[in-house]
């Protein structure tokens, strides 16, 4: 199944919805094909526009999901059509829900000791039919053991929580050694699922204002939030070149 992509400051962005991307990913599982998902937001695109290696890493993925309302604004500024924000954690939850229905196996890798296991227990409560093939925390240093454990578990989907871009670098370096179809880097999502980190209220999420909620409870993030106006300025400048 084909997909549409746009390029924003040299970074590919996929034009998908939760429904269309899930359909394509689970078809890929049936066809024994691999799919690599990376989330992109304004801060990451700005960094990638100045870092050729990061840009190449992001663009090497099969899907670059628009995880940030600023990406949607940028698409409109340059005459594009991307209008659906796809957050990393919500895509993970969507895929897990479909996996439970289709009896596909998931694996959780990353996070501090105990976090992936706690996330597993919460997910099983949410989806009683879910098959969690295994978990490994992010402090395991034996990479061959990690690969062997994931392969032995016969997982269909692998969620990697190490923070970006480390998780994406690990996926790209190891995907050819793994008998897994779907790879997604999910940052701090295991902590959210486990209940260690609170998400923004649904009202903020619906309006794409999670960044504002996080800024309200963590004012020290102000410097990072300056990436959004700088990003939109750069997009506007590129459009008018």
UniProtKB/TrEMBL annotation:
What are its E.C. numbers?
Answer: 2.4.1.187
Could you name the domain of life of the organism this protein comes from? Bacteria
A Pfam family that this protein carries is Glyco_tran_WecG
Q: What class of enzyme is it?
A: transferase
The molecular function GO annotations come to: N-acetylglucosaminyldiphosphoundecaprenol N-acetyl-beta-D-mannosaminyltransferase activity
Keywords per UniProt: Cell wall biogenesis/degradation, Glycosyltransferase, Teichoic acid biosynthesis, Transferase
- Per the UniProt entry, what are the Gene Ontology biological process annotations, in alphabetical order? cell wall organization; teichoic acid biosynthetic process
What NCBIfam families does this protein's entry cite? wecG_tagA_cpsF (TIGR00696)
Function noted in UniProt:
Catalyzes the conversion of GlcNAc-PP-undecaprenol into ManNAc-GlcNAc-PP-undecaprenol, the first committed lipid intermediate in the de novo synthesis of teichoic acid.
Family as reported in the entry's similarity comment:
Belongs to the glycosyltransferase 26 family. TagA/TarA subfamily.
Q: What is this protein called?
A: N-acetylglucosaminyldiphosphoundecaprenol N-acetyl-beta-D-mannosaminyltransferase
